[in-house]
Amino acid sequence: SQQGEEDPQALSIQEGENATMNCSYKTSINNLQWYRQNSGRGLVHLILIRSNEREKHSGRLRVTLDTSKKSSSLLITASRAADTASYFCATLGNMLTFGGGTRLMVKP
Amino acid sequence: NAGVTQTPKFQVLKTGQSMTLQCAQDMNHNSMYWYRQDPGMGLRLIYYSASEGTTDKGEVPNGYNVSRLNKREFSLRLESAAPSQTSVYFCASSEAGLGEQYFGPGTRLTVT
Lengths: 108, 112
Fold this sequence. Notes:
The complex is a heterodimer of chains A (108) and B (112). With 108 residues, chain A is mainly β. Helices cover 0% and strands 57% of the residues of chain A. Chain A has strands at 5-7, 10-14, 19-24, 31-37, 43-50, 55-58, 61-66, 71-76, 85-92, 96-98, 102-107. In chain A, the strands form two sheets. In chain A, strands 2, 4, 5, 9, 10 and 11 form a six-stranded mixed beta sheet that branches. Chain B has 112 residues and is mainly beta. In chain B, 0% of the residues lie in helices and 50% in strands. Chain B is built from no helices and eleven strands. Chain B has strands spanning 4-7, 10-13, 19-25, 31-37, 43-49, 56-57, 64-68, 74-78, 87-94, 102-103, 107-111. In chain B, a hairpin with a 6-residue loop joins β5 and β6. Chains A and B meet through β5, β9 and β10 of A and β5 and β10 of B.
């Protein structure tokens, strides 16, 4: 069973727009991580937020975590065509458990 | 540094055949993992090794065995392949169990 569930499953935006992806989970966690996967490739780690943190930034990425609602969001600002990929949240409890992902398409 | 490498990249097996997927990392990480990814889905953990000499079952271990050969290498074996094991297999490593994981490029396995 998957701990995290991403929403939406697919998202299509124009270059320059912001993209927001949400993740909900069910049980308590140590941390929550976001990964990107380009088509046919392995996953690449983007950002990790600990359970006692509420917000974290890395370049054009902003992640929030609300442990009371068991949810997280990933915001990509000023999107580029190169951001086209699938994005996965992963929650760390006893093991790292991945959600089903959001497929993001950024049109030039 | 090559990071995490996996061999082979592609494999086709007939039902009942066996094979071993190889994984190696050159980052001196303690923990290593095997995942499978089915179409349109996230990754599911098959087995992991928190440190050299230890292995533990993940979410979907049935039909698989693993060996942590040394700190660098972690192999996944299918003893008798079944069509349900058609998937893309990813190996990953991390310095410790709590942090970010580094993934290999994957092995695309088809069982007919």
